[in-house]
Amino acid sequence: MKQILSVQNPLIKQCKKLKAKKYREEQGQFLIDGQHLLQEAISAQLSLEYIFYDPNRCDPPQNTDAECIECSEEIIRALSDTPSPQGIIAVAEMPNEPDSDLSAGRYVLLDDVQDPGNVGTIIRTAEVLGMTGVVLGEHCADVYSSKTIRSTQGALFHIPILRRNLQAFTEELHQHHIPLLATAMNGESLEEAEVPLNFAILFGNEGKGVSPALLDKAAQLLTIPMAGKTESLNVTVAAGIVLYRLHSKR
């Protein structure tokens, strides 16, 4: 079993750079931090290159072809973005973006959702409720940032994720006769609305909502009925309510 004890090791320095988005995109790799996320990645048959582990904290997984490297707690802390790392971190290959077969399906579209925690939580909700895929607009948070990955709790590895120009993607949807739904303050009540079998549902920026240009493309606007005086909901809460209600209408 290979062992590395110094944070000055060239491989550790190289892997540490993956904490930056620019280097992740250049290398086509990202970091997976923690036992649960690592097991989810392995179960999804994600390609892993290295697994660094602290033998005082945990054992390396047996069900992987990745090179397992014993290392110090100092190295784990250098590679992790969390204040209390679990003692194991992997270097994974970014999966190839899947082909988008738009002949059928139910898609979640995110327009300029910038908080990594929000993006990750919506991906997790979409996967749990059986959505076909999640499409991220160009200005959304990076799906491979550590906070986004943690927020997905591994759902990221089990649902197709696409990054697209949403203006162009909505045109593709139209060509394949998949209607675009969007959330808006002046829409039809979510409780009463009839929705088609196949659709794409659009959620917008935390502060500004869905951009007017995309809202104009929506075939149907939906509103969450609210009994209180609060005028709006956090985008992750709104997405959870809407996706669950649409799921129950199947």
From TrEMBL:
Pfam families named in the record: MRM3-like_sub_bind, SpoU_methylase
Designated name of the protein: TrmH family RNA methyltransferase
GO cellular component, one term: cytoplasm
Superkingdom, natural source: Bacteria
Keywords assigned: Methyltransferase, Transferase
PANTHER family: RRNA METHYLTRANSFERASE 3, RRNA METHYLTRANSFERASE 3, MITOCHONDRIAL
Family per similarity comment: Belongs to the class IV-like SAM-binding methyltransferase superfamily. RNA methyltransferase TrmH family.
Entry annotated with the keyword Cell division: no
A GO MF label: RNA methyltransferase activity
CDD domains: SpoU-like_rRNA-MTase (cd18095)
Keyword Transcription attributed: no
Residue intervals of the RNA 2-O ribose methyltransferase substrate binding domain: 31-98
InterPro entries found in the cross-reference section: Alpha/beta_knot_MTases, MRM3-like_sub_bind, Ribosomal_eL30-like_sf, rRNA_Methyltransferase, SpoU_MeTrfase, SpoU_subst-bd, tRNA_m1G_MTases_N
A biological process from GO: methylation
